[in-house]
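Suppose you are handed a protein chain with no further information: no name, no annotation, nothing but its sequence. What can you learn? This example shows the usual starting point.
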Amino acid sequence: MVKVAGVKWVVRKGFEPVVLKVRFAENKAEKSPQSASRGLIKDSSVRHIYRTSIPYANGHLSLVVKIYKDRGLIHRLKYLLRLPKGIAEYLKARELEERGVPTLFALAGGARSRHLISTEHYFISQEIAGGRPLHEFIYEDYLKLNPEERLACKRKLIPALASFVKDLHQRGVLHSDFHLGNIIFTRSTSGNFNFFVVDLLAVRLKKRLRVAQRLNNLALLDAIFKRFFSVADRFRFLKLYAQGSPEIEHHLKKYARIIDKEALRLKSHHRRKRLKRAFSSNRYFEKVKGGRLKGLLRREFKGALSPFIQNPAVFFDPDKANLLKVGQRATVAEGKITADGKVKEIIFKRYNQKKRIDPFKDFFRPSRAFKARKVGNALFYSGLPVALPIGAFEERRFGWVRHSYFVMEKLNAKRLNEFLQEEFGHTKASGRSLTGGEIRKKRKVLGALARLVRRLHNQGFANRDLKPTNIFVSEGPEENLAFYIIDYDAYTLKRRVSARRRLCDLSRMELAAPKLRVLSRTERMRFLREYLADIRPGKLEFKAWCRDILRRANRKRR
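A reasonable first move is to predict its three-dimensional structure. Written in structure tokens, the prediction is:
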């Protein structure tokens, strides 16, 4: 144990000079400029991580310094009976080293104490040369590859990652926060992957892991894999992981279903957890009040929306504003604001009180604007394509809601019915048939839409007004399509969408499909088959779905 400038350190033998050369600021105000020049990695309310380099021996030593911040008296009292975080992480890194697990090369762990209570905790490790977080590679590199390069990358990435996770579990390592951000990788000149596990406070070390513990740990990864990899890719990962483990290999399909079910539960739990912060003041959102309006909005838009908060009526004035819709239930307008030095197009939606009973309903429940904001943020935190929800506001008098307002970013996209007419409607008018390229593009559009609707339902979102006019589509480079399902008022958020509710949503789409005149019945059945791809129904079951959808659609037409 070494004490330097009020910090008690546990240091690896031979690296004692390291803690003398690394300088730590005493307060938060000093840390930011100091670490910015050193290479900031992360700065949150919990921890501050940065890179630095110090002279050591005959050269320089590249370090990663992690500072766990003081979070108040209750947080301090926890560490009266616990090891300080920095020291605990250092000791875990040394134990993982002894077990042969690739991880950080830990140099020191320490804690600053006041009146025998730990306030700030420190952990110093050697930087992994050429190391990057795996999630950074997936978002910045992998998703931008063309299909051939992506396939070649997957053939190396999936086996290497399966072997790494299998090795962790065989050595009794269980990571309770196992996601791609806590896996660092390096690549050799031949493109092979080498992985390292980090964030060691979340690691639990055991003699042997039970099958249930291994499956739960795999579900944490699978919840993230669903965004980037197909069902076949995820099953291949599990198959490679299970090689040499008869207790898993002999029940592979059964365990794949268990992992998939647990991954959906974890995603739902994660979404609910993150959604809570959208309803309080924190570093992302802020409660605001101006004139008669009260509401919540994203912090970065506070200054830009201050004119709206003070006088929202101006933004719906027919002489001054561009009104997109004027109805009894809602009025929609568009405008422009400047946020972070950029001009952004914004949609303003005002909810009107149509019925006399509406104010009484809103007295006991959140207004429609707040419900729309909740759905928009739930979609955003679920990783689904969405028009960014900026804020929601209420105008009340004596507790009664007069108007509520919802503000979101404008989509740079076309409605689905307009897109289909532009791309394929001209063939009907001219009387010619579609070319091979147009047929492939149409199938691609319907397949992508079917997968989005399936993903919405699998994540607990039902939409009672699912129709082409409420679906927007944007086309990127190489004909990459992005779909957005708007009209947040029609959404219902559930833990599980029942088969009956799925049929209702799909029958609403079937009701609107004939009006487009560019979708044949065969193409609509192909859409349904793609939607049902995850359950792979037999011929009789598929026909039963078709009959139920048609029957419900015909009932709505009457």
